Amino acid sequence: MNATRTLSTAARVLRQLRHDPRTVALMLLVPCILLALLYWVFDGKQQQFNSLGASLLGIFPLITMFLVTSIATLRERTSGTLERLLAMPLGKGDLIGGYALAFGLLAIVQAVLATALAVWFLDLEVAGSPWLLLVVALLDALLGTALGLFVSAFASSEFQAVQFMPAVVLPQLLLCGLFAPRETMQPVLYAISNVLPMSYAVDAMGEVLTHPTITTTFIRDASIVAGAAALVLTLGAATLRRRTA
Fold first, then answer.
1. ABC transmembrane type-2 domain: which residues (predicted)?
2. HEC states along the chain?
3. Could you tell me the pTM of the whole model?
């Protein structure tokens, strides 16, 4: 990877997003709106909101970044932009790194807004530091970005890119421990959940919710989410194609 080329790619993506304010608004505001909606659904039942809100604080940004990143990257390919870029002295790693950096910056803003809303306006009660919530929310958003970049290589249309969400995200949502403790699942499902990064994202949020200090379990879970994002980005660079067949 070349730092100059990676930064140039990131700057180009950000310039394009600047001319698409509706997409930027959706990326930044949808997780906040969904958290607020969840708070109103429970209508004063703070304990129930706490148990679900912390987990969804990471899941909502992951889903949002996955959808936006996969569609935006696919649009680059179908419009011919990707082919022109790769005809230049620009490596696949530079391209993927630039996209990850650009969307990662938006993920930071998204995570800050969602965490601030949950903690200071929706009274999300956590035993640990709110900054740890922000760290996990950011890692989840970056994981969603990485997954979106990766799956875009296997879609030939925006419709197919959206269809990848049920295939990639929803199984993780069902098995992450949000609806039932993973330990109570069937052994096969529990084994599958152990290799899904969203499981560790939810576990990390649970650690912040119940422990006043940083635990070794939190460090392990956060490291697994970060490692999964890095691995998926590497796979995304390896599978990147110039055009969609």
1. 18-243
2. CCHHHHHHHHHHHHHHHHCCHHHHHHHHHHHHHHHHHHHHHHCCCHHHHHHHHHHHHHHHHHHHHHHHHHHHHHHHHHCCHHHHHHCCCCCHHHHHHHHHHHHHHHHHHHHHHHHHHHHHHCCCCCCCCHHHHHHHHHHHHHHHHHHHHHHHHHCCCHHHHHHHHHHHCHHHHHHCCCCCCHHHCCHHHHHHHCCCHHHHHHHHHHHHHHCCCCCHHHHHHHHHHHHHHHHHHHHHHHHCCCCCC
3. 0.87
* Measured distance CA(133)–CA(116) in Å, rounded: 10
The C-alpha atoms of residue 117 and residue 129 are separated, in whole angstroms, by 15
The Cα–Cα gap between 88 and 225 comes to 33
Cα 23 → chain centroid: 16
The structure tokens listed for 68 are: 């936006």
Q: Give me the tens of pLDDT residue by residue for the chain, a chain 245 residues long.
A: 677 878 888 888 888 888 888 888 888 888 899 999 999 998 878 888 888 888 898 898 888 889 888 888 787 777 666 666 666 666 677 777 888 888 888 888 988 999 999 989 998 888 888 889 899 989 998 898 889 888 887 877 778 888 888 889 999 999 999 888 999 999 999 999 999 999 999 999 989 988 999 999 999 999 999 999 999 988 877 776 655 44
